[in-house]
Amino acid sequence: MDEIVHIIPIKHEIDRAVRPFEKLRANKIYLLHSKSKKFDIGPKYFLETAKKRLEHKNIEIITIESEIGDPLPLLSTISDIIVHEKKEENLVYVNMSAAGKLSAVASTLAAMYHDVKVYYVHEDGGYAKNTEELMEHGLTIIKEPSYFVLTNFTIDIPSGAKSTFLVELYDKGTMTTNDIITMIRDKKLQGFEDLNESIGGKQRTMSNVLVRINRGLLDGLESNEYIAIEKRGRNKIIVITDKGKYAACLIGHDQ
Question: What is the rounded CA–CA span in Å between residue 31 and residue 183?
Fold first, then answer.
């Protein structure tokens, strides 16, 4: 489709979300926002104001609820959008500067991992000094819009079957080797499909299956501290670590 798509987490900013499009082009913009609390009209005002001003530029606007102050769900939301839009062969940009420091970190990590451009919008008018300026510009004031595109670097995290498993583990919290065997039977693990096939007319032994799962999947994830493996009696319980949670959210569900 070759559309230009921007992803903008937004909280208490207007200028930083809107003014760049005096220079930048966009066919579609995703505005990511936190769920508004009861009686909390602040963030909702900035979201709606930015949305209206961008719509006046004839840009399609999609608003999506996420947790702007929590890097993990925000990582997941941004990654899912990027993967979806890249499948549509669209050009994706991420604005890291319209929702605070934590969202800036999540935006940058997601953009760099998925190899799309992430940019920072400079402020040149200082901070809003009164309610009138706040309602017009948001927290920061931009007189002449300018932005800086960061240089991407490679973020190395699990891929293939390991990434699929890690996302599933993140969603479930814990899994057993039986859960992994079920994934293999459901053909959700690329590269392990042959474990469903017989050898010379004979079914594979459970011991052979477990060795393959350990060597081809679990050992590498555990040694790189993406998962922890606990023994409970005869059962092996696989738990995702904090490092694994970040990796899973970066990978996204729409891989």
Answer: 35
Per-residue pLDDT tens digits for 6-58:
999 999 999 999 999 999 999 999 999 987 665 455 778 999 999 999 999 99
Distant-in-sequence, close-in-space partners of 96: CB < 8 Å, separation ≥ 6:
103, 104, 107, 108, 111, 118, 119, 120, 150
Is 154 inside any structural domain? no
Q: pTM, whole model, 2 decimals? A: 0.86
Q: 62: which residues sit within 8 A by CB, 6+ positions away?
A: 28, 29, 30, 31
Please check whether residues 68 and 122 belong to one and the same domain. yes
Residue 186 belongs to a domain: yes
Residues 186, 216 within the same domain: yes
Strands (E), 11-54: 28-33
Tens-place pLDDT, residues 89-122: 999 999 999 998 999 999 999 999 999 999 999 9
Instruction: Give how many domains the chain has, as a whole number.
Output: 2
> Residue 149: helix, strand or coil by DSSP?
strand
Q: Helices 177-185 and 206-213: crossing angle, nearest 10°?
A: 100
Do residue 141 and residue 167 come from a single domain?
A: no
Q: Are residues 67 and 73 in contact, defined by beta-carbon separation less than 8 angstroms?
A: yes
- CATH code for the domain of 227: 1.10.10.10
Answer yes or no: are the C-beta atoms of 158 and 226 closer than 8 Å. yes
